[in-house]
Protein backbone atom coordinates (compact mmCIF):
# COMPACT_ATOMS: atom_id res chain seq x y z
CA UNK A 1 0.00 0.00 0.00
CA UNK A 2 2.94 2.34 0.74
CA UNK A 3 6.52 2.24 -0.56
CA UNK A 4 9.18 1.06 1.90
CA UNK A 5 10.55 4.35 3.26
CA UNK A 6 14.17 4.81 4.31
CA UNK A 7 15.10 8.20 5.74
CA UNK A 8 18.78 8.99 5.36
CA UNK A 9 20.56 12.07 6.64
CA UNK A 10 23.77 13.46 8.03
CA UNK A 11 23.71 15.39 11.28
CA UNK A 12 26.29 17.04 13.48
CA UNK A 13 27.34 15.56 16.82
CA UNK A 14 24.83 17.96 18.41
CA UNK A 15 21.96 16.84 16.15
CA UNK A 16 21.76 19.61 13.53
CA UNK A 17 21.18 19.13 9.79
CA UNK A 18 22.70 22.48 8.82
CA UNK A 19 23.37 25.97 10.22
CA UNK A 20 20.81 28.39 11.63
CA UNK A 21 20.97 30.16 8.23
CA UNK A 22 19.88 26.78 6.76
CA UNK A 23 23.02 26.79 4.66
CA UNK A 24 24.17 23.39 3.39
CA UNK A 25 27.39 22.29 5.11
CA UNK A 26 29.66 19.27 4.94
CA UNK A 27 28.90 17.02 7.89
CA UNK A 28 30.06 13.58 6.76
CA UNK A 29 33.00 12.36 4.63
CA UNK A 30 33.71 10.59 1.35
CA UNK A 31 32.90 7.07 2.60
CA UNK A 32 29.48 8.24 3.68
CA UNK A 33 28.90 10.04 0.36
CA UNK A 34 29.69 6.73 -1.39
CA UNK A 35 27.28 4.83 0.87
CA UNK A 36 24.51 7.37 0.22
CA UNK A 37 25.11 7.12 -3.53
CA UNK A 38 24.62 3.33 -3.33
CA UNK A 39 21.43 3.72 -1.31
CA UNK A 40 20.16 6.24 -3.87
CA UNK A 41 21.04 3.97 -6.80
CA UNK A 42 19.24 1.07 -5.13
CA UNK A 43 16.04 3.07 -4.51
CA UNK A 44 13.13 3.40 -6.92
CA UNK A 45 12.67 7.03 -5.88
CA UNK A 46 14.20 9.76 -3.74
CA UNK A 47 12.19 12.50 -2.03
CA UNK A 48 12.89 15.94 -0.53
CA UNK A 49 10.79 18.80 0.81
CA UNK A 50 10.65 22.15 -0.95
CA UNK A 51 12.61 23.68 1.98
CA UNK A 52 15.63 21.58 1.00
CA UNK A 53 15.29 22.47 -2.68
CA UNK A 54 15.21 26.18 -1.85
CA UNK A 55 18.09 25.95 0.67
CA UNK A 56 20.44 23.57 -1.17
CA UNK A 57 19.28 23.36 -4.81
CA UNK A 58 20.27 19.66 -4.96
CA UNK A 59 20.16 17.57 -8.15
CA UNK A 60 19.77 14.22 -6.33
CA UNK A 61 21.42 12.40 -9.22
CA UNK A 62 23.42 9.19 -8.80
CA UNK A 63 27.07 10.26 -8.90
CA UNK A 64 29.03 7.04 -9.53
CA UNK A 65 29.36 6.15 -13.25
CA UNK A 66 29.44 2.43 -12.27
CA UNK A 67 26.17 2.69 -10.32
CA UNK A 68 24.55 4.61 -13.21
CA UNK A 69 25.68 1.87 -15.63
CA UNK A 70 24.29 -0.82 -13.35
CA UNK A 71 20.92 0.92 -13.21
CA UNK A 72 20.82 1.24 -17.01
CA UNK A 73 21.93 -2.41 -17.43
CA UNK A 74 19.01 -3.57 -15.27
CA UNK A 75 16.55 -1.60 -17.41
CA UNK A 76 16.08 1.35 -15.06
CA UNK A 77 16.58 5.05 -15.68
CA UNK A 78 20.03 6.39 -14.76
CA UNK A 79 18.53 8.15 -11.73
CA UNK A 80 15.73 7.17 -9.37
CA UNK A 81 12.47 9.09 -9.69
CA UNK A 82 13.06 12.45 -7.99
CA UNK A 83 10.13 13.70 -5.93
CA UNK A 84 9.63 17.17 -4.46
CA UNK A 85 6.96 17.75 -1.81
CA UNK A 86 5.80 21.28 -2.56
CA UNK A 87 2.21 22.15 -1.51
CA UNK A 88 2.11 25.56 -3.19
CA UNK A 89 4.30 24.82 -6.24
CA UNK A 90 7.01 27.19 -5.03
CA UNK A 91 9.85 25.39 -6.78
CA UNK A 92 11.69 27.66 -9.24
CA UNK A 93 11.46 26.39 -12.83
CA UNK A 94 15.27 26.64 -13.03
CA UNK A 95 15.91 24.38 -9.99
CA UNK A 96 18.76 21.88 -10.61
CA UNK A 97 16.56 18.91 -9.72
CA UNK A 98 14.31 19.68 -12.69
CA UNK A 99 17.17 19.85 -15.19
CA UNK A 100 20.28 17.91 -14.19
CA UNK A 101 20.58 14.30 -15.34
CA UNK A 102 18.04 12.10 -17.09
CA UNK A 103 15.08 10.48 -15.34
CA UNK A 104 11.57 11.12 -14.15
CA UNK A 105 10.60 13.88 -11.71
CA UNK A 106 7.41 14.23 -9.70
CA UNK A 107 6.25 17.40 -7.96
CA UNK A 108 3.66 16.71 -5.27
CA UNK A 109 1.36 19.70 -4.78
CA UNK A 110 -1.86 20.40 -2.86
CA UNK A 111 -5.10 21.92 -4.13
CA UNK A 112 -3.83 25.29 -2.84
CA UNK A 113 -1.11 25.52 -5.53
CA UNK A 114 -1.46 28.16 -8.25
CA UNK A 115 -2.84 26.30 -11.32
CA UNK A 116 -0.79 28.48 -13.69
CA UNK A 117 2.48 27.62 -11.96
CA UNK A 118 1.47 23.96 -11.76
CA UNK A 119 0.83 23.87 -15.48
CA UNK A 120 4.23 25.50 -16.13
CA UNK A 121 5.95 22.94 -13.89
CA UNK A 122 4.23 20.22 -15.92
CA UNK A 123 6.86 20.87 -18.64
CA UNK A 124 9.58 19.53 -16.33
CA UNK A 125 7.88 16.98 -14.08
CA UNK A 126 4.80 14.86 -13.54
CA UNK A 127 2.43 16.48 -11.07
CA UNK A 128 0.60 14.62 -8.31
CA UNK A 129 -2.06 16.47 -6.36
CA UNK A 130 -2.62 15.21 -2.80
CA UNK A 131 -4.20 17.21 0.02
CA UNK A 132 -6.01 20.52 0.30
CA UNK A 133 -3.69 23.09 1.93
CA UNK A 134 -0.64 20.90 2.47
CA UNK A 135 0.53 17.76 0.71
CA UNK A 136 -1.16 14.76 2.33
CA UNK A 137 1.74 12.35 2.63
CA UNK A 138 -0.27 9.14 3.15
CA UNK A 139 -2.30 9.95 0.06
CA UNK A 140 0.86 10.82 -1.88
CA UNK A 141 2.68 7.62 -0.89
CA UNK A 142 -0.35 5.53 -1.89
CA UNK A 143 -0.29 7.20 -5.30
CA UNK A 144 3.46 6.65 -5.61
CA UNK A 145 2.99 2.94 -4.82
CA UNK A 146 0.35 2.77 -7.58
CA UNK A 147 2.96 4.05 -10.06
CA UNK A 148 5.22 1.10 -9.14
CA UNK A 149 7.51 2.81 -6.61
CA UNK A 150 8.35 0.18 -4.00
CA UNK A 151 11.38 1.70 -2.29
CA UNK A 152 11.59 5.37 -1.38
CA UNK A 153 14.63 7.12 0.06
CA UNK A 154 13.98 10.41 1.86
CA UNK A 155 16.83 12.94 2.08
CA UNK A 156 15.15 15.60 4.19
CA UNK A 157 14.72 18.07 5.51
CA UNK A 158 13.55 18.11 9.09
CA UNK A 159 9.99 19.31 8.42
CA UNK A 160 9.24 16.59 5.87
CA UNK A 161 10.87 13.87 7.97
CA UNK A 162 8.87 14.92 11.03
CA UNK A 163 5.61 14.62 9.07
CA UNK A 164 6.59 11.18 7.78
CA UNK A 165 7.25 10.02 11.37
CA UNK A 166 4.02 11.65 12.57
CA UNK A 167 2.07 9.79 9.88
CA UNK A 168 3.77 6.47 10.68
CA UNK A 169 5.27 6.20 7.19
CA UNK A 170 8.97 5.65 8.02
CA UNK A 171 10.35 2.09 7.92
CA UNK A 172 14.08 2.67 8.42
CA UNK A 173 16.00 5.70 9.67
CA UNK A 174 19.73 6.14 8.99
CA UNK A 175 21.77 8.91 10.55
CA UNK A 176 25.41 9.58 9.88
CA UNK A 177 26.65 11.57 12.87
CA UNK A 178 29.61 13.74 11.85
CA UNK A 179 32.43 15.01 14.04
CA UNK A 180 31.31 18.65 14.16
CA UNK A 181 29.17 20.75 16.48
CA UNK A 182 26.96 23.28 14.66
CA UNK A 183 24.73 24.63 17.44
CA UNK A 184 21.91 27.15 17.10
CA UNK A 185 18.46 26.58 18.57
CA UNK A 186 16.79 27.38 15.24
CA UNK A 187 19.12 25.20 13.13
CA UNK A 188 17.16 22.31 11.55
CA UNK A 189 17.17 18.90 13.24
CA UNK A 190 16.17 15.50 11.79
CA UNK A 191 12.55 15.78 12.94
CA UNK A 192 11.31 19.35 13.44
CA UNK A 193 7.59 20.16 13.09
CA UNK A 194 5.48 20.26 16.24
CA UNK A 195 6.91 17.15 17.91
CA UNK A 196 5.15 14.48 19.95
CA UNK A 197 4.06 15.31 23.49
CA UNK A 198 3.39 12.05 25.28
CA UNK A 199 5.61 8.98 25.48
CA UNK A 200 2.99 6.72 23.96
CA UNK A 201 3.09 8.84 20.79
CA UNK A 202 6.88 8.52 20.37
CA UNK A 203 8.11 6.56 17.36
CA UNK A 204 9.95 3.53 18.80
CA UNK A 205 13.08 2.34 17.05
CA UNK A 206 15.32 -0.69 17.18
CA UNK A 207 18.98 -0.70 16.19
CA UNK A 208 19.88 -2.55 13.00
CA UNK A 209 23.54 -1.53 12.78
CA UNK A 210 26.20 0.77 14.24
CA UNK A 211 29.31 1.47 12.22
CA UNK A 212 32.25 3.87 12.48
CA UNK A 213 32.41 5.77 9.19
CA UNK A 214 34.84 8.51 8.14
CA UNK A 215 35.34 10.42 11.40
CA UNK A 216 31.83 9.78 12.67
CA UNK A 217 29.24 7.06 13.29
CA UNK A 218 26.53 5.59 11.08
CA UNK A 219 23.44 4.51 12.98
CA UNK A 220 20.77 2.42 11.28
CA UNK A 221 17.39 2.10 12.98
CA UNK A 222 14.23 0.23 12.08
CA UNK A 223 10.84 1.54 13.16
CA UNK A 224 9.17 -0.81 15.63
CA UNK A 225 5.54 -1.40 14.69
CA UNK A 226 2.69 -2.04 17.12
N1 LIG B 1 22.11 17.08 6.62
C1 LIG B 1 21.28 16.50 5.82
O1 LIG B 1 21.35 15.28 5.59
C2 LIG B 1 20.21 17.31 5.17
C3 LIG B 1 19.37 16.73 4.21
C4 LIG B 1 18.35 17.51 3.65
C5 LIG B 1 18.16 18.82 4.05
N2 LIG B 1 19.00 19.34 4.98
C6 LIG B 1 18.80 20.72 5.46
O2 LIG B 1 17.47 20.85 5.93
C7 LIG B 1 17.03 22.19 5.74
C8 LIG B 1 15.68 22.19 5.04
O3 LIG B 1 14.76 21.58 5.89
P1 LIG B 1 13.32 22.21 6.09
O4 LIG B 1 12.73 21.53 7.26
O5 LIG B 1 13.44 23.68 6.07
O6 LIG B 1 12.58 21.84 4.75
P2 LIG B 1 12.01 20.48 4.09
O7 LIG B 1 11.65 19.48 5.12
O8 LIG B 1 12.95 20.08 3.00
O9 LIG B 1 10.69 21.03 3.38
C9 LIG B 1 9.65 21.48 4.20
C10 LIG B 1 8.54 22.02 3.37
O10 LIG B 1 7.89 20.97 2.66
C11 LIG B 1 6.57 21.37 2.42
N3 LIG B 1 5.59 20.34 2.76
C12 LIG B 1 4.52 20.03 2.01
N4 LIG B 1 3.78 19.12 2.60
C13 LIG B 1 4.37 18.83 3.77
C14 LIG B 1 4.05 17.96 4.83
N5 LIG B 1 2.98 17.18 4.79
N6 LIG B 1 4.86 17.94 5.89
C15 LIG B 1 5.98 18.70 5.95
N7 LIG B 1 6.35 19.54 4.98
C16 LIG B 1 5.54 19.61 3.88
C17 LIG B 1 6.28 22.59 3.28
O11 LIG B 1 6.25 23.75 2.47
P3 LIG B 1 4.90 24.04 1.62
O12 LIG B 1 3.76 23.96 2.60
O13 LIG B 1 5.09 25.36 1.02
O14 LIG B 1 4.84 22.94 0.62
C18 LIG B 1 7.47 22.66 4.20
O15 LIG B 1 7.81 23.96 4.59
C19 LIG B 1 18.10 22.90 4.94
O16 LIG B 1 18.88 23.66 5.83
C20 LIG B 1 18.93 21.76 4.38
O17 LIG B 1 20.28 22.12 4.19
C21 LIG B 1 20.03 18.63 5.53
CA distance, first residue to last residue: 17 Å
Averaging pLDDT over every residue, what do you get? 98
Which range best describes the helical content: under 10%, 10-25%, 25-40%, 40-55%, 55-70% or over 70%? 10-25%
Q: What low-confidence regions span 5 or more consecutive residues with pLDDT below 50? A: none
- Helical run tally: 6
Can you tag this structure with a few keywords?
226 residues; alpha/beta; 9-stranded mixed β-sheet; 6 helices; 9 strands; binds NADP nicotinamide-adenine-dinucleotide phosphate
Describe the structure.
The mean pLDDT is about 100. The longest helix is centred in the N-terminal third of the chain and has 13 residues, at about 30-40. Helix content is about 25%, strand content about 25%. It has a nine-stranded mixed sheet with strand order 5-4-3-2-6-1-7-9-8, sandwiched between helices. It has helices at about 30-40, 50-55, 65-75, 115-120, 135-145, 160-165, and strands at about 5-10, 45-50, 80-85, 105-110, 125-130, 150-155, 170-175, 205-215, 215-225. The protein is α/β, with parallel strands linked by helices and about 230 residues long. It is globular and about 45 Å long. The protein is built from six helices and nine strands. NADP nicotinamide-adenine-dinucleotide phosphate (NAP) binds near residues 188 and 192. NADP nicotinamide-adenine-dinucleotide phosphate binds near residues 9, 49, 56, 87 and 137.
Amino acid sequence: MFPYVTVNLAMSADGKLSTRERRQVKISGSNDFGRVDILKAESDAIMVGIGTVIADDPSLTVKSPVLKEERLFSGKDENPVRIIVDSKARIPCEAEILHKGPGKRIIAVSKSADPKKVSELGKYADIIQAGDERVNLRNLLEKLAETGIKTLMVEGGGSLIWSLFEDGLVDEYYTCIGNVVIGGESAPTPADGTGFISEDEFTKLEIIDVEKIDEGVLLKWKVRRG
